[in-house]
Amino acid sequence: MATRTRAHVFVSGTVQGVYYRANTRDTAEEMGVDGWVKNLDDGRVEAVFEGSKDAVEGMVEWCYTGSPAADVEDVTVEYEEPRGEDGFEIRY
């Protein structure tokens, strides 16, 4: 089994109210990535991606574009030790 990796991502710009979370979930499920995504009070979106290195890096790259209506200004990524995320969810 490939070694799992974990990316903790913060996305800023026009990323709330544009289906960013739903598109993130759908894309993560297509790529076989576990984790979660949620809106923050400061207008950013926070997400955690866990899976194979290639799939997680693919999700991080996807965040720079995001949903079609999004206007992403910045993506901050911190790589962490995997914590065993299972499935992908939108958190509230």
Task: Please describe what this structure looks like.
This protein is of the alpha+beta class and 92 residues long. The protein has a single domain, classed as Alpha-Beta Plaits (2-Layer Sandwich). It contains 2 helices and 5 strands. It has a 5-stranded mixed beta sheet with strand order 4-1-3-2-5. A hairpin with a 5-residue loop joins strand 2 and strand 3 (45-52). The radius of gyration is 12 Å and the shape is globular. The model has no long low-confidence stretch (mean pLDDT 96).
Give a concise summary:
The protein has helices at 20-31, 53-63; strands at 4-14, 34-39, 45-52, 71-80, 88-91.
Offer a few descriptive terms.
92 residues, alpha+beta, Alpha-Beta Plaits, five-stranded mixed beta sheet
Low-confidence regions? none
Mean pLDDT: 96
**Rough shape?**
globular
Task: Name the assembly state.
Answer: single chain
Topology:
Elements: E1 4-14, H1 20-31, E2 34-39, E3 45-52, H2 53-63, E4 71-80, E5 88-91
